[in-house]
Amino acid sequence: MNWVRAKLDQARKPFEPGEKYEKFAPAINAFDTFLFTPNHTTKKGAHIRDVVDLKRTMITVVLALIPALLFGMWNTGAQYLYQERGLASVMDVPFWDAFIEGAILVMPLIIVSYVVGLTIEFIFAIYRGHEVNEGYLVTGLLIPMIFPVDIPLWMLALSVAFAVLIGKEAFGGTGMNILNPALTARAFAFFAYPLYMSGNAIWVHEGSTDAISGETILGSLASGQYDGSVMGSAANSVAFAAPVEEASVLSNISFDDMFYGTIPGSVAETSALLVILGAIILIATKVGSWRIILGGIIGGLAMGAIFNFFGNLGNDFITNLVESGAITLDQVYNDAGAVAGLGLSGWDATLMELGTNQLINFPFWQHMVVGSILFGVVFMATDPVSAAQTFKGKWIYGILIGFFGIMIRIFNPAYPEGIMLAILLMNVFAPTIDHYVVQANVGKRKKRLKKAQAQLQTA
Amino acid sequence: MSKDIRIRKGLDLKLKGEAGHKLVTAPRSSVYAVKPPDFHAVVPKLILKEGAAVKAGEIIFYSKYDEAVKFAAPVSGTISEIVRGAKRRVMEVRIQADASDTFYEHGSMDPLQADPTAVRTRLLESGCWPFIIQRPYDIVAGPEDTPKAIFISAYTSAPLAGDVDFILKDRKEAFQAGVNALSRLTEGKVHLCIGKKSNLSDIKNVEVHKVKGPHPAGNVGVQIHKLDPINFGEKVWAVGAEDVATIGNLFLTGKFDAVRTVALAGTEVAEEKRHYYTTKIGAKVSDLVGEVNTQETRIISGDVLTGDQINNDQYLNYYHNTVTLIPEGNEYAFLGWLPFTRNDVPSISGTSLSWLTGGKSKVNTNLNGEERALVVTGEMEEVMPMNIYPMQLIKACMAGDIESMENLGIYEVAPEDFALIDYVNTSKIEAQEIIRLGLDLMITEVG
Fold this sequence. Notes:
The structure holds two protein chains of two kinds.
Chain A: H1 2-12, H2 25-35, E1 36-37, H3 54-85, H4 95-128, H5 135-145, H6 153-168, H7 181-192, H8 194-197, H9 217-222, H10 237-241, H11 255-260, H12 272-284, H13 290-323, H14 329-334, H15 336-341, H16 347-356, H17 358-361, H18 373-380, H19 391-411, H20 419-458
Helix pairs in contact in A: 3-4, 3-5, 3-12, 4-5, 4-6, 5-7, 6-7, 7-20, 12-18, 13-16, 13-18, 13-19, 19-20
Chain B: E1 5-6, E2 23-25, E3 31-34, E4 44-46, E5 53-54, E6 59-63, E7 66-72, E8 77-84, E9 90-97, H1 116-126, E10 132-135, E11 139-140, E12 149-154, H2 164-167, H3 172-183, E13 189-194, E14 207-212, H4 220-227, E15 236-240, H5 241-253, E16 259-265, E17 276-280, H6 285-289, E18 297-301, E19 308-310, E20 322-327, E21 333-334, H7 354-357, H8 379-382, H9 390-399, H10 402-408, H11 419-424, H12 431-445
Parallel strand pairs in B: 1-14, 2-17, 12-13, 12-15, 13-14, 16-20
Antiparallel strand pairs in B: 3-9, 4-6, 5-8, 6-7, 8-9, 10-11, 10-15, 16-17, 18-19, 18-20
Helix pairs in contact in B: 3-5, 9-10, 9-12
EC number (chain B): 7.2.1.1
Domain Na(+)-translocating NADH-quinone reductase subunit A C-terminal (chain B): 261-310
Subunit structure (chain B): Composed of six subunits; NqrA, NqrB, NqrC, NqrD, NqrE and NqrF.
């Protein structure tokens, strides 16, 4: 490697202090330090240092994302070819056909994200005279992974620019941002270009509701199409045995499909299995906070279980109604007039609604494998800059993300994927959580002081 | 009743180059130096000029702002040179040593029988007072103050640092006398923290605590925090274990004999030289380690986490009992940021397989990365056994926010308590320096 080093040293010369391109040193430094960890030695403080640095940390996150990304490429291609070729199952698409097709669709997103984002990062590094921070290595990959595959590239580019400029650099750059930059990009696109970011046709390349839908499970649950074929809970059997107006195209989706990820969705969020693999990498390398991940899962399960409890109350109410012969199951679901004729009011009407709401009745543990809650909790919520920073704070932050993620998912049928909003919301509250955790510590210290002073006075 | 300390948070760095348990008398240096910068916040006023003859234990300068605090010559001889730095600041007072020491005589005293004021005066007049360090602020103790407690840490946990138990194995009587003297300086307790197998467990007039756990369990700051934490307005004193013996020797013999037992450690010291050496405070380091190529090897007075970088022609720090030589790491590592490479460097992070390879490591001074913004969280807390939020305290110090610093526990810490944070933090910030500046700010603003 000596000759590479020698070439680099030569290339660096015009960028040295006092030379012609001194101002652009951060740019050449970024390339140099990418190839070689620099020969800087300690000057102050501890004379020896841990081998971990920000580059290594960020590359580890990229490494943890790779399995989900590769799967996402395959799945994107497979979902498209399955639709186009009219096959019986996604698994019938030949592996390499699917992967190559997916890679062709996904790679431009990744390239645009990195080119736009890194260009802005480099400009800011040169303008501010500091080194290029490695944070964008992760953000740049996360952004295309959480977008629908058909997003026009210019929209992606604008979202990236918004995220980096307004979401990050406006706050002072890496380490200073309040919101997760990747989610900022998605939130921007979601509100700026809603047609391309939500709906039932966007999740599969050239998705068409006429042929085979590119709809997500959450989307169909929210619109009441889901026939509950994957439901395992006996308590839900009445509601989900109900005839669905139009036979869902998703009726052949099993729990395994959701777990392995062979379902429509954002590019890389679908596979719970590979997100769990990513989580294992993050936790084992101590790069991601296990407290946040576990907290998020606990919070999500708890909220789902609470809703299931109320859903069951509703189911019991409907079952009683049907058994008493006041109304038939078919009327419960399809005849609004018949239901209105019962003259239900107050709590009973609420119970009726709870019993017929498919999202509320979706088993709480299955919430974890659909949509991007797991992806969000593992890769987005653990962003250390925008997350809570204290250990106790991380628990609270994680649990609340899971809690609100499921709550938004269930309460907002227009946008059943609530985890993005939940994480952004908690990003904003993270400093407040930390504040109270730290204040508890400060309070202890003040209490101790008071006690000591009291002892002094009595002495 | 004594309370034992057990800590879980921290990090034991297993490094190659430990000093073997063999005590050798080091050759007498021709020149010794007392360095005023070793005494933080002390501005020296010289008593003796260049060319003056001094006895071992004779006062050579005092503190400008506290004239009672005096500093003595470690050896007898002639003041050969007063080295000054920027703004004529005195950096070193060098003493050309005689062949053997002639001591300044104080006369022996039994501290348990003597008046506490006499004990205090003896410590001040003999030049032993600077051994007493005050917390908060990690500075030389004020002569008028009465601490709420005095702490002695006789437990070594820092990597490659001199083993106090070994250093004190033949000086137990002097150590006891030192403890007796210190016990007269406070109305509170004197706490002695020892390792599990220490032979100091039967020392009297102290409360003995057994300490268990990884580094920084041996740091006196951690021990104070666990046993009797410092509140605003309170003062606690700490004295190094060998310094207690030196103080005891003063009371037993009437002489300030500045003996210092130094562990010579690190991979760059030949194995046959890696022992403990008996020398005097301020000895010239090259007399201990020989001439070293400082381009390739770093000489550290102290341990690898908190010591000072010195050159061949410099001298032992007043308080240090370790000299460490490790390779300079001024080399590039091709794709050194790749996870699971460079597993030879001990790491708290799981991005290195050092935990798997185990064993002792050879470390160098490479920064292993570049300074970055504070991004990763939680790693500082992993190595901070005190009930303190280190990142928040560091940020408060950086911002100079005095109220927050007070609230977050600045009075309880010294830079050495943040040494492991220097080591583990991904952003390569200089936590010890930030804390030192924070403490200095507190001294000027709060006093």
